Amino acid sequence: MADPALDVPAPDVPEPGAPGSSEDPRGVHSAADIATAWQRERPGAPTESIEIVTPIWWLGKLFADDRDRALRAAGIDAATLDLLSVIRRSGPPYALSTREIACRTLVTAGAISQRVARAERDGLVVRRPGTTGRRSVLVCLTAEGHALIERSVDTVLGREARLVRGLSDQERTVLAGLLVKLMADVRRRTGR
Amino acid sequence: MADPALDVPAPDVPEPGAPGSSEDPRGVHSAADIATAWQRERPGAPTESIEIVTPIWWLGKLFADDRDRALRAAGIDAATLDLLSVIRRSGPPYALSTREIACRTLVTAGAISQRVARAERDGLVVRRPGTTGRRSVLVCLTAEGHALIERSVDTVLGREARLVRGLSDQERTVLAGLLVKLMADVRRRTGR
DNA sequence: TGAGTTACGTTTAGATCTAAACGTAACTCA
DNA sequence: TGAGTTACGTTTAGATCTAAACGTAACTCA
């Protein structure tokens, strides 16, 4: 998966006097720079999405990378935590079919099948034949799997809470509201 | 990479009378539901990040999946487009070292090396020994690579513009501002 | 009632990524 | 001046994902 925010062309004639004046010290352009540059290169191009899509993608990657590092140190991995969590959130009796898990995590059923196989091998879940539907298989948390989530939660949440501390309570509320609205709309438009 | 927003436990005693009343028809809980549920399960847990991190990660995935589908139909792939774009944005003479590309795309140098090898095989870039630094290699766009970006831009931008159309101009401006602020802060805290 | 269809989970082939190990060239400095 | 260090790009091993092909069990319906 690569950056979904289309990258940027730079001005055709960069000022030698003020090189990178609006740039990050590491040479990373801001989303606004990107949109402006595409406007200059292709006037009339529909660039209004760049300021939204680029930072969302970068932030997602920054959050994920940070969490991956923290979890690796704890001997867990994000895919497994995600699997256990989605079952946990489904409520008692803490069991979900493969298909449902795939739907709730935006991951393919094949990938879920592999995640479940790994987690079962590690004693975190067990598979049982389901009662409903055609050939459903229920994936159930074991006591060990249940305990693993409980142990990991505070670490991950605490870490993420520190990362969003730069925004005030009010800013976070406004941001969350806009994100939820956008997500509902995107899901409708993409049919997912 | 799995969902970095910690998933949610459901209430221990789900109301049978109103099952999933605040849920998405597909069974996906909203970020607010997730935070509320963790508060109930683990009172005092630092859940303030969930409303931010969860939708960001989901939106990133929705945007990426949609773009991947569109690009596949056009016979390109997102990783290659990302590579070509970052070189394009660096401005004339459209050449960047592997190290710089890795830094600007949040991808490891090894992955860039592989992307460049694929793109070179396809005639989209060429590698040339660099003049500066120790052993730098400049990755340069070919005419074909340059043309490929130009052809792909409008398609991808148009697609993404439609996806964010649910937000008004003002809402997009506010959202973009908050995202930029948050991103600067997260980068500072994670050192990236 | 039995052929066809549908709805699942699993397996396989192939792509791509990360982390770590390498291999070198270019600096440093006693 | 030459051993050690540093800064790169590349290769390798291993993990994981997607898409597509499978294999079945459970429905449908003439």
TrEMBL record, chains A, B:
Domain of life, per lineage: Bacteria
InterPro entries according to UniProt: HTH_MarR-typ (IPR000835), MarR/SlyA-like (IPR039422), WH-like_DNA-bd_sf (IPR036388), WH_DNA-bd_sf (IPR036390)
UniProt-listed Pfam families: MarR_2 (PF12802)
Ranges where the HTH marR-type domain occurs: 49-184
Gene3D superfamilies (alphabetical): Winged helix-like DNA-binding domain superfamily/Winged helix DNA-binding domain
GO molecular function, one term: DNA-binding transcription factor activity
An individual GO BP term: response to stress
Compositional bias of kind Low complexity: 1-10
Residue ranges of the region described as Disordered: 1-29
Protein name as annotated: MarR family transcriptional regulator
Native organism: Streptomyces antioxidans
Highest classification ranks of the organism: Bacteria, Bacillati, Actinomycetota, Actinomycetes, Kitasatosporales
